[in-house]
Amino acid sequence: MSITITERAAHRINEIRSEQNIEPGSPLRVSVESGGCSGLTYKLDFDASDVLSETDKSFEDHGIKVVVDMRSFLYLAGTSLDYSDGLTGKGFHFHNPNAARSCSCGESFSL
Description:
Radius of gyration: 14 Å
CATH superfamily: HesB-like domain
Helix content: 10-25%
CATH class: Mainly Beta
Strand order of the largest sheet: 4-5-2-3-9-8
CATH topology: Hypothetical Protein Aq_1857, Chain: A
CATH architecture: Sandwich
Structural class: alpha+beta
Largest sheet: 6 strands, mixed
């Protein structure tokens, strides 16, 4: 199982890289932290370091390298990252098959 990225999400990630002058090859780090109204929250950030931990897992989809720590991967295996700029919610959206419940804003979840 891996973490996948839709074409729309990959396009937006590349736009953000360009807007913020981030190196084109910088991996996107996806993680899970405690918080949010459902208990766990998603976090996205660019990883400026080329050095990965021994426990990091990495994937590539649509030209985007995704890095995730092992603890977060246990929650995120099989997740797809999408992007929407429609009226019903602009931003990145996680489609996580492991989430038993998520809040209405989609930013936090529980197992």
